[in-house]
Backbone:
């Protein structure tokens, strides 16, 4: 019997499903005790190979009343492959640029007792896609949300990289503007976590060059076309991978995994970079002597050169 507990600003939902019924919900009481409410199924779909569909995913897509899809063409291919019949009116298109009224429409369907499946173009919905807005709206309405697990490109690439997996950070796509890209790269540069980036093949060479300049020559891995026919994994130092990418044209979906910070000294820098770093530390009320030590711990620079630059600020 579903139970929803609210206390001190938090919401706890317990959904005890009958294994024989699987995800068939009581349309009279609703999964959270709300009269007539349905359930939102957040469904992971294959990232390239349709054989990665789980039995539970196929059953869920067959049984739900509506499917919310980022790309209706992609979900149609999956439905056709597994002979799941869903008329066009049962598939709701939703993208990042969709109007707020589209979410209201979806929530109305759920409140009226409909069970809906949320899918992205590939992989897990809400990871670097607009699905989180629908999940958040459903939670706010007290609608039960459950998850159908499955493939994910970021985690697959992390495992294939051979880099440490005990601590990692998903960075995703970097901002497109130069200033914001640089700020983001600098923000994660000194984190001791394995970093996971998404990037398009046309911008991969640029990203590798940017990271090499700030991160120094760390271990990295590019995983391309994971689970597809031309799957490829390129491992090595950032400089080695950059040289390989420059030597040929690469296509497909890319995930770049980079080793975390290990106190390596930055060798490629300008006087302006040192001034900026030093000014940032001083603005945080760090004493000049301590700031000089911090900069020296990060850059391959001698004490006299650093002192001379600091006198110009």
Residues:
């Amino acid at each position: 019997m579903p139970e929803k507990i609210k206390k001190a600003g938090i919401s706890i939902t317990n959904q005890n499903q009958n294994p024989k019924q699987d995800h068939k919900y009581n349309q009279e009481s609703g999964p959270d005790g709300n009269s007539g409410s349905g359930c939102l199924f957040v469904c992971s779909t294959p990232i390239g190979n349709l054989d990665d569909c789980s039995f539970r995913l196929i059953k869920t897509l067959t049984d739900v009343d509506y499917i919310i899809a980022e790309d209706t063409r992609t979900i149609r291919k999956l439905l056709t492959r597994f002979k799941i019949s869903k008329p066009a009116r049962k598939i709701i298109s939703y993208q990042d640029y969709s109007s707020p009224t589209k979410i209201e429409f979806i929530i109305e369907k759920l409140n009226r007792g409909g069970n809906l499946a949320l899918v992205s173009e590939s992989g897990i919905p809400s990871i670097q896609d607009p699905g989180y807005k629908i999940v958040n709206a459903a939670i706010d309405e007290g609608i039960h949300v459950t998850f159908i697990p499955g493939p994910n490109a970021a985690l697959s690439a992390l495992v294939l990289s051979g880099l440490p997996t005990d601590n990692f950070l998903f960075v995703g796509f970097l901002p497109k503007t130069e200033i914001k890209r640089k700020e983001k790269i600098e923000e994660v540069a000194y984190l001791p976590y394995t970093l996971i980036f998404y990037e398009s093949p046309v911008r991969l060479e640029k990203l590798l060059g940017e990271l090499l300049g700030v991160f120094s020559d760390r271990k990295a891995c590019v995983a391309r076309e994971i689970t597809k026919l031309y799957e490829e994994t390129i491992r090595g130092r950032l400089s080695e991978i950059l040289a390989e990418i420059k030597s040929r044209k690469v296509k497909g979906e890319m995930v770049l995994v980079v080793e975390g910070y290990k106190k390596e000294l930055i060798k490629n820098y300008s006087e302006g970079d040192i001034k900026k770093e030093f000014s940032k530390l001083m603005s945080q009320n760090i004493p000049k002597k301590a700031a000089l030590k911090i900069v020296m711990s990060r850059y391959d620079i001698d004490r006299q050169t650093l002192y001379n630059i600091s006198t110009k600020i």
